[in-house]
Amino acid sequence: MDFTIISGFLDKIGKIMNLTEKELVLLKTPQRIHQAELELDGQKYPAYRIQYNDARGPTKGGIRYHWEVSFDEVKSLAFWMSLKTAVADVPFGGSKGGITVNPKELSQDQLQQLSRKWVQAFYRHIGPTKDIPAPDVYTTPQIMAWMMDEYEKLIGEKAPGVITGKPLEVGGSLVRDIATALGGIYVLEEAVKKVSLDKKTVAIQGFGNAGMNMAKLLFQSGYSIVAVSDSKGAIYNPLGLNVDELIHTKTQSGTVIAYKNGTTISNEALLELEVGVLVPSALSNVIHKENANKVKAKIVLELANGPTTPEADEILHQNKVLVLPDILSNSGGVTVSYFEWVQNNTGLYWKTEEVKERLREKMVVAFEKIWAEYENNNYDFRTNTYILAIKKILVAEKLRGRL
Ligand code: NAD
Q: Per-residue pLDDT for 199 more than 90?
């Protein structure tokens, strides 16, 4: 998302919260910007690390490898991370990093070299008590392992807490692989206690890490998944899809539309289905002012980052659709990243059930705090979520005497 949209949104929230000019400027300004140009085999790749706000703790945020990575995008994502860590109530600030590169064009060896170069460029600015990266789009547990290794080589000591999302064998946490979807489920479970659903039917846009795990977990907990999609299109069956078979089809043929027991529909049509829950888990800005009025779901659970535009948000709110925003719904990932960091720093490793239970507790508390405000005012759920996060950041800033 464009930072000008975030800036406009902050102005709107600033009025609601009666923020001072100084507070608004602080919220609109990243604290530290690090940029570099990484050279590999004669090519130059722009690289970034933006540490947006550290009032609540060391900064935390993923590293994205994508050909569209830009300064503006990294800045927007770093801002979002600052809010997300506040909503999840983990003791971190927010940051983000990236490289403007098409990783699909690199060999494994080049990918490793480029990842090590990112660490060489920024290692003085990261660390377990400074700034802790993690995976994001097209960065994997393997890349996190290379980066940790490079960091440890440069500082001359072991420091597994420098990065999260690592493979289990080198200090990763159990549950991290499904944490985003599982956190989303815990939020949904609380929401359906408040907004009763006639039918437990779900449509999921996107069938990658977030969407596929969501489909699997919801299917296991008794929801009927009537539609799912990927970049090739969507598959629909009003009687419910068999998710285990769908995963098999996706693995075999590369797309969900090859699944036999359903009809193909467009990705746009999926968003307009008459379902209890709609889960956008792919791209940004897919629900916008042209299609928001056609959304018939009672609950929109945003696993993707930024799937709903601000105009669409207003329309959905008027239509009494409950939108559970990304910074809450997909914060299970950063929460389990926090657990990974705690385990690395203490050297004590937790069992699956312990991680799950701690995650549930965090998500339930976060949802309840926002719901308590939402019930008592006329603002939409997202606005209430932002207000809560901004309050926490500003309180920390004031306690530090920086504001
Ligand atoms: P992914 O690359 O694993 O999966 C993306 C999926 O979206 C794929 O199935 C792809 O086919 C599908 N897709 C692409 N274009 C599409 C289109 N036009 N219509 C429908 N589907 C399309 O990515 P992911 O990790 O699952 O992330 C998805 C979203 O969730 C992103 O917005 C990401 O920022 C967000 N998110 C993910 C995590 C996580 O832990 N994976 C955490 C927080 C936020």
A: no
Ligand 1: lining residues by beta carbon, under 6 Å: 180, 205-211, 229-231, 267, 281-283, 303-305, 330, 333
Tell which residue, 361, 336, 216, has the closest CA to residue 279.
Answer: 216
- DSSP lists the bridge partners of residue 100 as 66
**How many whole angstroms separate alpha carbon 278 and alpha carbon 195?**
14
Residue linked to tokens 């949802």: 367
- In 156-232 the beta strands, taken as DSSP E runs, fall at 201-205, 224-230
* Predicted confidence (pLDDT) per residue in 110-124, tens digit: 999 999 999 999 999
Count of C-beta atoms within a 10 Å radius of residue 91: 13
Distance CA 383, CA 308 (A): 13
Q: Is 39 exposed, middle or buried (0-12, 13-18, 19+ CB in 10 A)?
A: exposed
> 198: burial class by Cβ within 10 Å (0-12, 13-18, 19+)?
exposed
Helix (H, G, I), strand (E, B) or coil at 240: coil
Q: Closest Cα to atom 25, ligand 1: which residue?
A: 209
Contact 71, 35 (CB under 8 A): yes
Tell me whether residue 239 is exposed, middle or buried, using C-beta atoms within 10 angstroms of its C-beta: 0 to 12, 13 to 18, 19 or more: exposed
Q: Are strands 93-100 and 59-66 parallel, antiparallel or unpaired?
A: parallel
Residue nearest to atom 3 of ligand 1 (CA): 208
The overall average pLDDT reported for the chain is 97
Domains of the chain and any CATH numbers: 31-167 (3.40.50.10860), 179-329 (3.40.50.720)
